[in-house]
Amino acid sequence: MTQETIDPATDLDPADAESVVEARLALYGAAVDAALRGLTARGVYRAVPLDPESGTFAYQALPDIHALLTMRRYTECVVVAERQGSEARDWAVLYEQRAGLWLAEYVTHTGLHHFVLATAELVAEELAGWSGAVGDAPVPALDLYLTREQVAAQDPALEPVGRCTAAVTITRLDLGEPMRETWTGVFTGPDGSYVSFGEGDDGVRYRGAGRAGVAEHWRTVLGAA
What we know:
Layout: H1 8-11, H2 14-41, E1 45-51, E2 56-61, H3 63-73, E3 77-84, E4 89-96, E5 101-107, E6 113-119, H4 120-131, E7 143-147, H5 148-152, H6 159-162, E8 166-174, E9 180-189, E10 192-199, E11 203-209, H7 211-221
Antiparallel strand pairs: 1-2, 3-4, 3-8, 4-5, 5-6, 7-11, 8-9, 9-10, 10-11
């Protein structure tokens, strides 16, 4: 026996199908209106009354939002960092700007976005803390080279790194022709921090680092080292 999926908008007679489509559009419109009202309450959009009697509004993005979207779009380099902790995952997305500035967009696991525009040096310092590095943590005595195959096989030498409570995967995208991708990582925990980066054609270097070392790693990622 086989089951067939029936789409009410296509398998009903034309009159009933039209009413189903209208109902769907009404639901979609209500969902969009609810989302826009939520964004307006958070100060992202402005509601402009069009018809006081019917309660119709037009929603306009604030000038600051247009500026942020423009800065996100017109960039030659994007860095995407994904932080995986013990309970949640969040992100930092970095957009290179003019005059040595970077636009940092922090996205929480609940979907909130927070923006910071600063120099590469200041962004790197902030990202060191965001990564979980603390100033008084010990610097692990690890300087390890592994092939990518050894990393994929979870080589036992990586056990200290595996005990970290937060892992940040960093992808830098240089948007030229052709586009170039570079991957690095930061791992942090109560026993200290580690950074990782590609070395040679098929290798990965893992190195113990303090907060200053993590900040230096971020400066390298941002091209400010």
